[in-house]
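Thread: "does anyone have the structure for this chain?"

Original post by V.I.:
We have the sequence but no experimental structure in hand. Need at least a predicted one for the grant figures.
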Amino acid sequence: MNEAQPSSSSLSAMQALAERIEAETPHLRVLDVCECPHPFVKVKDTINGIIVGFSSEADYTTYVVMMRRVEVNHHA
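Reply from O.Q.:
Generated one for you, tokens below.
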């Protein structure tokens, strides 16, 4: 079987995303940049105690917005 390999541009995009996550959201601890089955960044959310994966900037942005809404609702 011939499986598609992740492109180097996809991996470098995930590395850039990992660096952005580390810089912008210290409560999200980058655990790994994974290649298979597709490139994604594996992250531990230290506030919520869960491990999540982001395969795009949009995934990351959506997660951060959702968690902020949850946090605001808990404090309301």
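V.I.: this helps a lot. The chain has two helices and three strands.
O.Q.: and Strands lie at 28-34, 40-45, 50-54.
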